[in-house]
């Protein structure tokens, strides 16, 4: 995966003044980051380099303004040097996070994360309710739930009710699930719980399943 797939790397298109602000903010964030500030390899440009680039660009921007021009060769060179260090820093953070399987390297570092494109489903969710099944276990105070796969669904919405339900308001959301099996834990033993589930598709939802009740053991 490229760093351009993980972060919004639009620094080259930024106005020089905006780039100065970004460098200052990123320097502050990385200086306060518990891992970047203490575990980053010394050869990787970071806080001190960003602040130096900020000062260099600000100086050249002031000189360009005195000449009444938008850009000079010196300003272009200062921006290019900063961009090179920004790309090196971003690539390093991504590789370090991947190597250590620790995404904390990527957060609060000054970079804006790219939003993952939402998956579009070309099939409609099922018009009939899902068949939900419940059984006790595998551990005490847990219930295993399973249901049939809906090929038009991107996820499934699971709701729970403690005690016998009295209308839709009795249920509360447990979560949105990707798989067709889950274990619900921390339930009160010797108590009735009811569960229901529905498919979530592309801007549409399926009907709720019939509530399935079970006494937790």
Describe the protein in words.
This protein has 217 residues and is of the alpha+beta class. The chain folds into 2 domains: 3-106, no CATH class; 132-215, Immunoglobulin-like (Sandwich). It contains 5 helices and 7 strands. A 4-stranded antiparallel beta sheet has the order 4-3-6-7, with no helix packed on it. Strands 1-2-5 form a 3-stranded antiparallel beta sheet, with no helix packed on it. The longest helix has 28 residues, at 73-100. This is Fibronectin type III domain-containing protein. Residues 128-217 form the Fibronectin type-III domain. InterPro entries: FN3_dom.
State the oligomer: single chain
User: Can you give the mean pLDDT?
Assistant: 93
Count of individual domains: 2
Q: What does the overall shape look like?
A: elongated
Q: Could you tell me how far the N terminus lies from the C terminus, measured between alpha carbons in angstroms?
A: 46 Å
- Mind summarizing the main beta sheet? 4 strands, antiparallel
Number of helical regions: 5
Radius of gyration: 27 Å
